[in-house]
Every structure is written in C-alpha cells, then in structure tokens.
Write a structure and sequence with these properties.
Layout (H helix, E strand, L loop, with lengths): L1 H16 L7 H12 L4 E5 L7 E6 L4 E7 L8 H20 L9 H11 L1 H7 L4 H14 L4 H12 L2
Parallel strand pairs: 1-3
Antiparallel strand pairs: 2-3
Helix pairs in contact: 2-3, 2-7, 3-6, 3-7, 4-5, 4-6
C-alpha cells in the first residue's frame, strides 16, 4: 500500500512537472488572436542562428511586433510554434501590465520550479542580468504552463486592466 501511494505520488509529480504543449493549432491560433488583438503584429522572419523569436516594443517609433524566426523554428510543428509564441506573448503581457506580471514573492518559487523541472531554461536564465532576468524568468516559466494559463493571463493583463 505504501509503495503504491509512493508510485502514484511520483507519477502525479511527473505529470505536473512535464512541460506543457500546445497540443493543437487551435491553441496556437487562439493565443495569436489574443496577441494581435492588443495591436501587436505577428511576423515570420529569418533570424541569426539559434534565435527562435523575439518581441519588440518601441512606442516612440510605433513598433509592436512578435517575431517567429522561421529559419530556426519548425513552423509545421504546433509545439515548436507554441513554445516561441507563449514565451514572446508573455512579454506582450508584461508591456500591457507595465512590468512583470508576477508578484515579487513568487520569484524564488518560480526559480526553484525552473531549476527542478526545466534545468535547461534555468541555465539559459543565468545568462541574463537585472530586470531583464526577471522578465525572462516569467516567459520561461509560462512556457511550462498548460495553454489555458497564458490565454487567461493575456485576457487579465491586456484586456481587463
């Protein structure tokens, strides 16, 4: 009985810790619609090797765009597109909100979660400094959520504030 409980707890922990995937083009399309509804343009461009995408906002120069690096992302794979989209859409949320969307008190927990469940993201995050590190932390964390979370947060931070 004790072994069965331990096995169930382990499996449940793995299910929670596993990275989320879009699972469908419908999820990708829905989040893209939410992003473009903010006025952000979505573009597919060729980028330097290794860069998957980026978000650029410059109000003074009327720039507000989310870019997929089509030469580095498999644009036929909804999971690959989703990862870039949700990461960059988090930056859109941050602009809508005027800064980070998470409470400061959550940062240590989110760092621990990334370190335990997505060590590759945690390692990448160590390359950033200061405020930029905080902004990227939220974006990497959001990639691990189920599709409903970033969509709900987009509505909260870009459509209800």
């Amino acid at each position: 009985m004790k072994t069965l409980k331990a096995l169930i707890a382990t499996l449940a922990g793995l299910a929670i810790a596993a990275p989320a995937s879009a699972t469908s083009w419908a999820d990708v399309n829905e989040l893209q619609d939410l992003v473009t509804g903010t006025g952000t343009k979505i573009q597919k461009l060729d980028c330097p090797q290794g860069r998957m995408g980026f978000y650029q906002f410059d109000k003074a120069n009327n720039i507000d765009r989310l870019v997929y690096c089509k030469n580095n992302v498999d644009m036929t794979d909804p999971d690959a597109v989703w990862e870039v989209l949700v990461h960059e859409a988090t930056h859109v949320m941050q602009v809508c909100h005027g800064g980070p969307v998470m409470k400061d008190t959550y940062v240590p927990r989110v760092l621990r979660e990334l370190q335990e469940t997505a060590p590759h993201y945690y390692a990448i995050l160590q390359q950033y400094r200061g405020d930029h590190k905080r902004i990227e932390l939220e974006a990497f964390w959001m990639e691990l959520r189920t599709p409903s979370v970033p969509m709900d947060w987009m509505v909260t931070y870009c459509y209800q504030e």
